[in-house]
Every structure is written in structure tokens, then in C-alpha cells.
Write a sequence for this structure.
């Protein structure tokens, strides 16, 4: 009896040890994050443009806010913020005692420096457009004013931004890392691009920059004095890997975390000790119609082509299921996504043929549909390099042939294809978009946008896009975007193919990740790198 | 000899490099695609930002202006700034990667010659033997197989299945850098890059040796009662090596261009991925810098081959 009790107690004890071992973070170790492209060495949050530089910046700097797994802004350098009733003022209250890696305290002055630099006339980066809405930004940019009334330092730990009109996407733009003004303010803004600082960055983030070895790795070490607590891992390494051999890197435990391609899924999934996480991305791909051409100006033609293309087969067979058939430019991963009132354009060649016939298109002598001297024969520009895209193009060509539409495939190197698109010298082309965390579609779909490739000029759409920007109540904003998606879905300036899916492989020794990841992945962008830990 | 070298450099080298740079610059800049393609999709971007960037990079100017500006910098040994977002000096980008590419190329040349020459000699000595047939067959396979395919096979066998060699790349951060480790990273890419040379050198060596081995003076040597070993290795080999030396000059360009492909398969930290990236992004200064550097290397490679020819053959004199 006694002995049994001891046994039970021992059992319980060992169980509790197991439980605590699994749940209590341990300190130490090196976490290797696999990257397939070398960073450029522009580790400056307001000047970089490449994702791989961003990976380093994410952990070296802290922004006023960060974006959580649900794509909502959360406090970081700013412990809180306040948006005025009329939506024209945002006041950030900063945490006191945050220190840059060189020991100097981060204050409102650094925040002001960071954002003023973006607005500076000589600023060489690409972020100005996000902050144009600040009061006085345009005058300052054009050199007509020396200050920006829209950026106001209240005290060391309070800073106020004022806008000309309410601008809902602005809040998520405040995630850019705060630069140390004491190290940079003496450098002319036009020369900032050349500053040695960019290769030896100093921020206030959880990791300190140690070394960048071209085409090999970036090494970062835990910041012992990090305001929000020292990271559990000692060293973070961004390790360059070769895309084709990622499975071998995983098998040899040379990386702990790496994004893999759909083709590598089966192989990696079967590896012991490796988990693969699949999650919806904020991206989609599409076939764009050139609506400047008369034959594509009629929505019926665009709808018929969409009905006539078997996108489900494309997703199921060509993408091997790693995608979601798309019907509007708002991915399922976005909080603004809606399927309500959105036509799914299920594959229906009979209906497609009917719509074309009703619109007056009839087969010509060679079987290709004609109407008023126009022919439904067009070039389809396909950027080279992806087997899946090339197969999609072939399927599209075949499906269209069934409808009496002749598609001439033109395979082209990516940059050359972009040239044609920018010059608007195309009939149709396929590409994809990756989107920001804020659903504002202005950048691609407003009639004034540079990237409005289809030539979609629709007053109702423009009105809703503008209204969505001004609306600061998320629920009302969501309604506006739902309405807007229904218009796009009906007008189909481009045919939406699929929303993207990302696959990340993670070594099981890594604990504390988000095991049910949203679009930002199991590490919630780079946010969780501070709190994950490694089990032996 | 020195006069010959100087003449080669100034009368031949400089005009050739100048002409090459002109045509390369022309081809690179008239190719479709733009160095500012990466700005595509940046939200809320104004055309003025793109124009400003173009002006900053100097690509808003006509071709001749761009070329003369580039040439002016080159004459001051300045390769310019890379067009990518970090705008680092092209010379730095090349300097960081050059050692790895040179290491890989030299290793593959050593493999190619170290293995190719003995194999070719044996193949010629035992002409029409089983060994000769096997080598001939393997040499043809070696010459025909594309390097990216061979590289992936090696990785599949030695890294994935046998798990005895790393999956490419270079030392991990924090890994102790030993010679054995260095060789384990170098072996597969060097073998991949060297395969073509091994096979090529072996075939050339065999043919060249067979040609001299039946010459009259060798029959004389044999008639004197010299052993076959001495006949082949002392008398025949030296003459047979001559054409192979010329081959070195021809092989250097293909080794360097092959390195670009092999490096990208193995994530070898050399110029390969930089070159491919630069071409994809129309990064003119980087493309020009890498190509000009290769052109200079190849030029000196051919001079070295010619000079070594003079050393090997006393009949050849450069006056």
C-alpha cells in the first residue's frame, strides 16, 4: 500500500517534471532561420526595400507598434495611443527607459527624427506616400517649409501626429523601426543611403547586430538589456540556404526554421523531428485584362472568360491543393475578406459560351469568336521561372480554345514582362501581388494608382476606396470593403486565380511558436523570436 | 619576354577590353527590363519617386552618356555603386565574394588536371584495353552531363542519402573552421565544376600522347633499349603535354562561367548568386563589374598559357 502510494507520487512527480520541462522556457542556444536570398546590407528601417533586409531590421529595431497574428496593431515602443474623436490626431505615449544598443535612451525625439526623415525633400527611400497625409508633409517635402506641423513632440515620452483627414491605414504604418537620432542627425538625409550605420545598425530591439557575411549568414545576439525582457535564445542566425536543397538542410539540422515550396512538402513532412505549418498568405495571383482594349471593355467578356477557366483544377492539380480559388482581391487571411454576395464563378463552359453569344460574339471562319471586326484572339504574357505558372498558362489556353478564344502564349523573362506591363503593351498577363497588413486597396485599384494595370476606372470603386481610408471604425470599414469586393467581383478587371498559401518547416526542438499560425506565420513575422526557446 | 608581355597588355589587351566593355554595356542596357522594376507594387508611390530614382542611378541619360560616365569611373578604378537598395560599392560586393569563386575555380582546375592527366596517360598507354574503354565511356558522360544535374545527383547521394557531406553552403555561423570541414564543403562543388575538365583533359591527354607515342624518335628510343616507362614518361610525355597547356588558356573562361551555375546550386558564397541576381535585376554596374573582372582574368589566363608554352617547349621564343 505504502509502496504503491510512493509509486503514484513518484509518477506524479515525474509527470510534473515532464510538464514543466515542456512549458518552462530554457535559455540559451542558437536558432537558425533559413533564407534563400542574401540580404543587401541595407539594415535601415526607412530605406530598405528587400524582405531579407527586413528580417534583420525586424529584430534589431522596435517600432511604435507591432502587428500581431490577427493583423492588429499592438503596443511596443508606444505603451498606448489615443486617436482623437475626429480621427485627425494620434497621440503615442512611449515607454520610459527603452535603451538603444549603445545605451542611449529612446525618446520622442528619435521617433520624430525617424518620421521627419521620411518626409525630407532629399529622402531617397520609398515610404513618403504612406505619410503624405500628415499635416504639412507636402510643403516640407517640396522644400516650402522647414517644419512639419503634423509631427509634434509633446514631451520626451509623448508624440502627436496630425493628419489632414482621417486615414485608417496610417496606424499600421507606425511599425517602422525607430532610428537613433543621436547617431544619424548629423548626416545629410541625401547621404543617409551611404552611411556606414546601415551595415552596422543600432536599434532598441531584442537582438543586437553582430556580423553580416555576404551570402553566408547574419549573426545577431540576444540583447541582455532589452526593455521587454531578454530573448530566450542566445544567438539568432539568418543562414543562407540553396532553394533546391532545403530538405537536406532540414534533415541535417542545419536550419531550425525555413519556408519551403509546395514541391518539397511531401519530402519534408515525412522527416522525423520536423513539423510543417501551412497557412494562408496575404497574396494572390491573377490574369489581368487590358481594359483599354475595346474587346475587354465589356464586363461580359471578362466574366465569360472567368467562367470558362477551370480554376479549381488549377488549384487542385497544378498547385497540388496549396492555394484557395480567389474571386476578389482580398485574401481569406485578411480581416476584410468576405464571401457574402461574391460570385464564385464556378467552372461552367456552357454558361461562358452562352454569355459570349448573348454579348454578340459569333465564331468566324476559323472558329475564333468575332464581333464588329474584333477577334477574341490575344497574347497572354507569362513570366518565366515558375513551372506552376507555365502549366496554368497551358491549361488556360486549352480552356479558352474550347470557348473559341485563341490565346497566344508569350513566355518572357520577368523584368522584360514588367516593361511591357508598365508600357501598357499587353493584352493579358499573369502575375501576383503580396499585400500589406492593412486591407486598403488604394495602391493597386484606385484609378490614380500607378499599379492599376488593367486600367480599371470605376467611380463607385474609387468612392468606396476613399471612404474606406477615411473610416476609422473597423466594423464600418469592413462593410465598405465588402461592398467594394462585390463591385470588383462583378466587374472583374482581372481574373483572380488563387490566394497564396505559405509553408514553413520548423524543427521540433523549437518551442513557443504559434502552432495555429495566421498569415504572419508560426513566428508571427519575427515577433516570437524573443520568446521562443530551444529544447535539447 | 617582358617586352612581349607588355606588348600583349598594351597593344592587344587594352583595345580588346575597351571594345568588349563597349559592346557589353550596349547589350546590357538595351536589353528589355529596367533597374527600377523592384519598385513595382510599392504602395502609394508617385511617378516622381521613380523618376527621381532613375536620375539618381543615371539611367535617365542616353546610352553614350551612361557609357562614358562608367568608363570615366573605371579609369579611376571605381566600379561605381550597385543599383540595389543598399547602394554599396560594386568593388566591395565583388571583393567579398571573389575569394570563394577563386577557391572553387582553382580547386576544380586542380581536380581536372590532377585526375585528367594521369587518367589520360594510362588510357593511352593501355589503348583499347577494358580500362581505356571504361574511361572513354565515362569521359563522354562527364563531358555531356549538365553541371546542375550532376551537382544535384551528388547532393542527393552524399548529403541526403549517405549524409556524409553538408548540403552545400559554407561553414555555419559558429562552426569551427577546420581544414577537413573546409574540404567537406568544397568537395562537391569542386567536383561538379571540375567534372567537365577532368573528362576533357583526359581525352585530350590520351589523344595527344597517342599522337607522339608512334613517332620515329620514340621508336629510336625504344630501339636504344630504353624501358617503355622511360620512353613514355621521359620522352613522350613532355611533348604530349604541350597542346594540353594551350588548353588551360581556353578552359579558364569556361571554369569561371561554370562557377556561376555551380555556386547557385550549392549556395557557395561566391560571385555566382550575385551575378545571377544582377542580371535578373538589370543591375548594370554589377553586371559590368563582374564581367570586366572576368575579362581581365581570362586575358591574363591566356597570357599565362602562352608563356608556359614557351617554358615547356624550348623551340618557342617570344621576342
Amino acid at each position: 500500500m505504502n509502496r504503491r502510494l510512493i509509486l503514484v507520487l513518484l509518477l506524479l512527480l515525474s509527470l510534473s517534471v515532464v510538464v514543466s520541462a515542456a512549458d518552462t522556457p530554457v535559455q540559451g542556444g542558437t536558432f537558425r532561420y533559413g533564407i534563400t536570398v542574401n540580404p543587401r546590407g541595407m539594415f535601415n528601417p526607412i530605406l530598405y526595400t528587400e524582405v531579407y533586409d527586413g528580417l534583420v531590421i525586424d529584430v534589431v529595431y522596435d517600432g511604435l507598434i507591432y502587428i500581431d497574428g490577427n493583423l492588429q496593431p499592438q503596443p511596443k515602443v508606444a505603451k498606448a495611443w489615443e486617436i482623437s474623436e475626429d480621427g485627425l490626431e494620434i497621440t503615442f505615449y512611449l515607454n520610459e527607459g527603452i535603451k538603444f544598443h549603445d545605451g542611449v535612451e529612446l525618446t520622442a525625439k528619435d521617433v520624430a527624427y525617424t518620421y521627419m526623415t521620411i518626409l525630407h525633400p532629399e529622402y531617397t527611400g520609398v515610404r513618403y506616400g504612406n505619410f503624405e497625409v500628415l499635416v504639412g508633409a507636402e510643403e516640407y517635402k517640396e522644400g516650402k517649409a522647414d517644419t512639419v506641423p503634423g509631427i509634434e513632440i509633446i514631451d520626451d515620452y509623448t508624440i502627436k501626429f496630425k493628419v489632414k483627414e482621417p486615414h485608417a491605414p496610417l496606424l499600421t504604418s507606425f511599425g517602422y523601426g525607430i532610428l537613433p537620432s543621436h547617431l544619424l542627425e548629423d548626416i545629410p538625409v541625401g547621404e543617409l543611403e551611404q552611411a556606414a550605420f546601415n551595415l552596422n545598425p543600432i536599434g532598441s530591439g531584442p537582438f543586437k547586430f553582430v556580423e553580416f557575411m555576404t551570402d553566408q549568414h547574419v549573426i545577431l545576439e540576444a540583447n541582455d538589456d532589452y526593455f521587454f525582457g531578454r530573448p530566450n535564445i542566445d544567438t539568432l542566425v539568418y543562414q543562407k540556404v540553396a532553394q533546391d536543397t532545403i530538405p537536406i538542410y532540414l534533415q541535417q539540422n542545419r536550419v531550425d526554421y525555413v519556408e519551403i515550396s509546395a514541391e518539397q512538402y511531401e519530402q519534408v513532412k515525412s522527416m522525423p523531428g520536423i513539423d510543417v505549418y501551412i497557412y494562408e498568405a496575404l497574396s494572390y495571383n491573377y490574369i489581368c485584362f487590358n481594359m483599354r482594349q475595346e474587346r475587354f471593355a465589356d464586363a461580359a467578356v471578362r466574366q465569360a472568360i472567368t467562367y470558362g477557366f477551370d480554376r479549381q483544377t488549377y488549384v487542385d492539380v497544378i498547385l497540388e491543393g496549396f492555394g484557395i480559388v480567389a474571386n476578389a482581391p482580398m485574401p481569406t487571411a485578411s480581416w476584410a475578406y468576405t464571401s457574402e454576395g461574391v460570385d464564385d464563378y464556378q467552372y461552367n463552359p456552357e454558361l461562358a459560351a452562352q454569355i459570349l453569344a448573348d454579348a454578340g460574339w459569333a465564331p468566324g471562319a476559323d472558329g475564333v469568336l468575332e464581333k464588329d471586326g474584333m477577334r477574341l484572339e490575344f497574347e497572354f504574357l507569362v513570366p518565366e521561372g515558375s513551372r506552376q505558372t507555365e502549366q496554368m498558362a497551358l491549361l488556360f489556353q486549352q480552356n479558352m480554345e474550347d470557348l473559341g478564344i485563341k490565346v497566344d502564349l508569350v513566355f518572357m523573362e520577368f523584368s522584360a514582362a514588367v516593361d511591357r506591363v508598365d508600357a501598357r503593351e499587353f493584352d493579358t498577363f499573369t502575375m501576383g501581388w503580396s499585400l500589406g497588413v492593412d486591407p486598403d486597396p488604394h495602391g493597386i485599384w484606385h484609378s490614380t494608382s500607378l499599379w492599376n494595370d488593367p486600367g480599371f476606372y470605376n467611380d463607385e470603386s474609387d468612392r468606396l476606396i476613399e471612404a474606406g481610408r477615411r473610416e476609422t471604425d473597423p466594423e464600418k470599414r469592413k462593410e465598405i470593403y465588402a461592398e467594394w469586393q462585390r463591385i470588383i467581383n462583378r466587374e472583374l478587371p482581372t481574373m483572380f486565380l488563387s490566394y497564396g498559401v505559405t509553408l514553413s518547416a520548423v524543427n521540433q526542438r523549437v518551442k513557443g511558436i504559434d502552432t495555429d499560425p495566421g498569415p504572419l506565420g508560426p513566428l508571427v513575422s519575427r515577433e516570437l523570436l524573443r520568446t521562443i526557446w530551444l529544447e535539447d | 619576354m617582358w617586352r612581349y608581355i607588355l606588348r600583349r597588355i598594351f597593344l592587344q589587351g587594352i583595345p580588346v577590353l575597351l571594345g568588349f566593355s563597349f559592346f557589353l554595356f550596349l547589350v546590357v542596357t538595351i536589353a528589355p527590363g529596367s533597374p527600377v522594376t523592384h519598385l513595382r507594387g510599392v504602395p502609394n508611390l508617385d511617378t516622381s519617386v521613380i523618376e527621381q530614382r532613375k536620375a539618381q542611378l543615371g539611367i535617365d541619360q542616353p546610352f553614350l552618356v551612361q557609357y562614358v560616365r562608367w568608363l570615366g569611373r573605371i579609369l579611376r578604378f571605381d566600379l561605381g555603386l550597385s543599383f540595389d537598395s543598399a547602394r554599396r560599392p560594386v568593388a566591395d560586393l565583388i571583393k567579398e565574394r571573389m575569394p570563394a569563386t577563386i577557391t572553387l575555380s582553382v580547386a576544380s582546375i586542380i581536380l581536372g588536371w590532377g585526375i585528367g592527366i594521369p587518367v589520360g596517360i594510362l588510357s593511352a598507354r593501355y589503348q583499347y584495353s577494358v580500362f581505356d574503354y571504361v574511361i572513354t565511356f565515362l569521359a563522354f558522360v562527364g563531358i555531356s552531363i549538365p553541371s546542375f544535374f550532376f551537382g544535384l545527383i551528388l547532393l542527393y547521394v552524399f548529403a541526403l542519402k549517405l549524409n556524409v557531406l553538408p548540403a552545400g553552403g559554407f561553414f555555419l555561423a559558429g562552426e569551427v573552421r577546420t581544414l577537413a570541414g573546409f574540404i567537406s564543403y568544397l568537395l562537391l562543388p569542386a567536383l561538379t565544376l571540375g567534372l567537365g575538365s577532368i573528362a576533357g583533359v583526359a581525352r585530350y591527354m590520351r589523344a595527344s600522347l597517342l599522337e607522339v607515342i608512334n613517332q620515329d624518335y620514340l621508336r629510336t628510343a625504344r630501339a636504344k633499349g630504353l624501358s617503355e616507362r622511360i620512353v613514355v614518361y621521359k620522352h613522350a610525355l613532355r611533348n604530349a603535354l604541350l597542346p594540353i597547356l594551350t588548353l588551360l588558356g581556353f578552359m579558364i573562361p569556361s571554369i569561371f562561367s561554370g562557377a556561376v551555375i555551380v555556386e547557385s546550386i550549392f549556395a557557395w558564397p561566391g560571385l555566382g548568386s550575385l551575378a545571377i541576381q544582377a542580371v535578373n535585376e538589370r543591375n548594370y554596374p554589377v553586371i559590368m563589374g563582374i564581367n570586366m573582372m572576368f575579362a581581365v582574368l581570362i586575358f591574363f589566363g591566356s597570357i599565362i598559357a602562352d608563356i608556359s608554352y614557351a617554358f615547356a617547349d624550348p623551340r618557342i621564343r617570344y621576342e
